[in-house]
Amino acid sequence: MIPLPTDEIRAEVSGHVATITIARPAKLNSVTPEMSAALVSLIEWANGADEIRAIVLTGAGERAFCAGSDIRTLDEYATPWDFRNRTDYCDAIRAGRKPVIAAVNGYAFGGGLETALSCDIRLASTTASFAAPEIKLGWIGGGGMATFLSNSVGPSNAAVMLMTGDPIDAETALRWGLVSELVAPDRLVARAQALAAVIATRPPIAAETAKANLRAAANMTQDAAIRYERDLQTITFATADADEGRAAFAEKRDAVFHRR
């Protein structure tokens, strides 16, 4: 059963794909602590649900993917240390085992940009825009903004965004490598779901391992990353799904994978 502790986070499943929607459009899908906890619960549920093989994450309405944390709730933390140790949905997305596709349908600002950066693949509407505006309010992002943004768009482009707080449009995001593809607004979620459905046809353990391998490669030296990749390859090669893949290739038929 899908855990939905708040009606401002929605989830639905079609085939092996879960679509999670941040559903607070009147507030630009800004995230409250309760919504953050709900997102964490959903990712944890998907981790343990063998039927879920890929996730699409998007925002409700046409204006915003996510505008980050609701600034009005930040003063609810008793101390800065409580704020430091808050439940963080970006951490949960990155720690999730299943591939996640962000369908960015409008503003991806602040924590919303960090949310998109925490996903494995980013598709964007032609009307999307991206910003790290925290500096305009006197602080900086804390959900991995600098490291993931610089890895995505390069240090100089990241510096422009982080030091000005000004937004970039969808075309710039595509040119800088922040997103993989631009899609018309009315086709965005369907395109993301179609891509997720393709990923869901792949051997699930191999897909989850590919995600783990990409995360590790970003944090290791090249030699260590190659050794780690070879170890992961050995693990996947020993699965029943790999046996099925080789048999299907030899027999010239479609493979059927069962996550084993």
Describe the structure.
With 260 residues, this protein is an alpha/beta fold. Helices cover 45% and strands 16% of the residues. The chain is built from 11 helices and 10 strands. It has helices spanning 33-48, 80-84, 89-95, 111-118, 145-153, 155-164, 170-176, 188-200, 204-217, 222-237, 240-251, and strands at 9-14, 17-22, 54-59, 64-66, 100-104, 107-109, 121-125, 129-131, 168-169, 181-183. A 6-stranded mixed sheet has the order 1-2-3-5-7-10, sandwiched between helices. A 4-stranded mixed sheet has the order 4-6-8-9. Strand 1 and strand 2 (17-22) form a beta hairpin. Helix 3 (89-95) runs parallel beside helix 4, helix 5 packs across helix 6 and helix 9 (204-217) runs antiparallel to helix 10. The longest helix has 16 residues, at 33-48.
Give the beta-strand count: 10
Question: How does the major sheet shape up?
Answer: 6 strands, mixed
Provide the β-strand percentage band.
Answer: 15-25%
Order of helices and strands: EEHEEHHEEHEEHHEHEHHHH
Shape: globular
Radius of gyration: 19 Å
**Ends apart, CA distance between termini:** 22 Å
> If strands are numbered along the chain, what order do they take across the biggest sheet?
1-2-3-5-7-10
Low-confidence stretches: none
Number of helices: 11
Mean pLDDT: 92
Query: Structural class, judged by helices and strands?
Result: alpha/beta
Task: Estimate percent helicity.
Answer: 40-55%
